[in-house]
Write a structure and sequence with these properties.
CATH superfamily: Electron Transport, Fmn-binding Protein, Chain A
Shape: globular
CATH class: Mainly Beta
Number of domains: 1
Length: 203
């Protein structure tokens, strides 16, 4: 079957994307607005970009309902900072709470029963319950797609500090089994680490 995106409506194209790009890591992004009020929301269009310096990116789409930018993106533009918190099995349900559309100024930390913890290099708080948090300084926002519903932006940030729970670090590497990360699938589906296998690269 071959599908031309031009024949699909917005939701149809979105469903094919999220049903094909699997599993997706979750960037649980904490920010503050210009008045210092915290915001927290999960984004599953997220990955690493570079190591020198360490750079990550996430891509907040505009709201389907009204085409407006999400609070996270507005806050990143206003402050030039954000924190990416990693979602694990213990925090997945609370991360899901923060995916709801709250009014500006409402603290998702409070709504989800989470603890805001201070960062060293940015003003936004990290999620104390998260096993790994990345303090980031905004490098660039790349506008992508429509200026309305379904359009998005690619947010690139340099990692200024890594916060890693003590029991996770083994010889400079994160123990992925101990991390117990959660990935996003389609609809309301999530996934955890299942069968793992190694493949050695031939040089």
């Amino acid at each position: 079957m071959i599908i031309d995106p031009a024949t699909l409506d917005l939701r149809g194209a979105y469903k094919l994307l999220i049903g094909s790009i699997l599993p997706r890591p979750i960037a649980w992004v904490s920010t503050v607005d210009a008045d210092g009020r915290p915001n927290l929301a999960p984004f599953s269009f997220f990955t690493g970009v570079a190591a020198a310096p360490p750079v990550v990116c996430f891509a907040p789409m505009r709201r389907f309902a009204d085409g407006a930018e999400k609070d996270t993106l507005r806050n990143v533009r206003a402050t030039g900072e954000f924190v990416v918190n990693i979602v694990d099995e213990d925090t997945a349900a609370r991360a899901n709470v923060t995916a709801r559309e709250f009014a500006p100024g409402v603290s998702e930390f409070a709504e989800a029963g989470l603890t805001p913890a201070p960062c060293e290099a940015v003003r936004a708080p990290r999620v104390a319950e998260s096993p790994v948090s990345l303090e980031c300084r905004l490098l660039q926002v790349v506008e992508v797609g429509a200026d309305g519903a379904g359009g998005g932006a690619l947010v690139l940030g340099e990692v200024l500090r890594f916060h890693v729970r003590d029991d996770l670090l083994r010889d400079g590497r994160i123990d992925t089994v101990a991390l117990r990360p959660v990935g996003r699938l389609a609809g309301s589906e999530y996934t955890t680490l299942g069968r793992r296998f190694d493949l050695e690269r031939n040089s």
